[in-house]
Amino acid sequence: MLKDEEIKKILAKINAGNATEDEKSLFLKWYHTWDDTQTKVDGLGDVETLHQSIWDKIEGKRKVRRWDSRRFIRIAAAFAIVGASSFAFFYYSGTNEKPLELSNAVKLGGNAFDHVTINTSVADFLDTSKYVNLKELNNGDKIGDISTGEAQFIKIQLPDGSKVSLNAGTKIHLADDFRTGQNRVVYLEGEAFFDVSKIAGRGFIVASKGQRVEVLGTKFNIKAYPNQKQIVTSLIEGSIRLQSDDELQVLKPNDIAYNTAGNIAVRSEEVIPNVGWRQLNFEFDNEQVEEVLQQLGRWYGLKIVFKNRIPDLMISGKIPRGTELKDLQLILGNLTQAQYQLKDNVMQVKFNNN
User: Fold this and answer.
1) Which residue from 14, 77, 181, 221 could staple onto 91, CB 3.0 to 4.6 Å apart?
2) Could you tell me the domains of the chain?
């Protein structure tokens, strides 16, 4: 574990632009394992508040600073720009108790045009024991398609007992022989977390555009949205075989696989990032700014329009559920050096100096 003085030195080098890749990696590893319930800073008077240094996180365990503001927001740490405008790091923690507003009426459909509408709620999605059981639904045996729109999330239990959580803007399709075939095949477009029930002699396959994941019984997350540059597969427990058009990789727990046009790169993490969405928290780990903003658009039901060239900026950070859109605009505007304009559910983004 890094000591406080070591963290300070690394952060100083990061801000000066001369940190090594190993030092950046150490800093991010410290960040992912840091107890984010410790330091809280109340209030947000203006954009400059976002520059409250990570020093406060290191120095002031339990330290509280206050600003006179109608918005009552807590910020634990600010952000650091690593290298030449290539990487951004942030953490935001809000006190706002307003729940994330979800669209209800998630539609489940079958090959025979049988449709079931499911009303969703934040409480149901966050309740680890609550899943929509397809077997218990009217005509549930005919349902083969489950999809979520913008600001929609759902957890379902498949006919084989496997459990799936669907992020916003996600579609899954059960193969026609899912219930009886030798392999249980699911087609995925978007992001989903799978907790697969083990059935002797029956494999479980998740097929996305450009890859197949084969399992027997395990927990894993796949992010495979349309137009996404990479398919990201994170293994929580068990073992999976990941196959693209060009490669085959066997993942072990805490492995993350990045599939870029058939080329698979695997890295191992002490803590798997990017699954905070299951608690309705935004969590990004070294992701392109374009993909981060598109994900936020799916969550908030916004169309993202880029007015000029998108910079090659990578973002890591966390934002909890309940964060109001106006506060999110303020944080991202300062973080990404961009102007954000919202009108009629369309968010226009214009990057500065571009």
Assistant:
1) 77
2) 4-98+280-351 (3.55.50.30), 106-268 (2.60.120.1440)
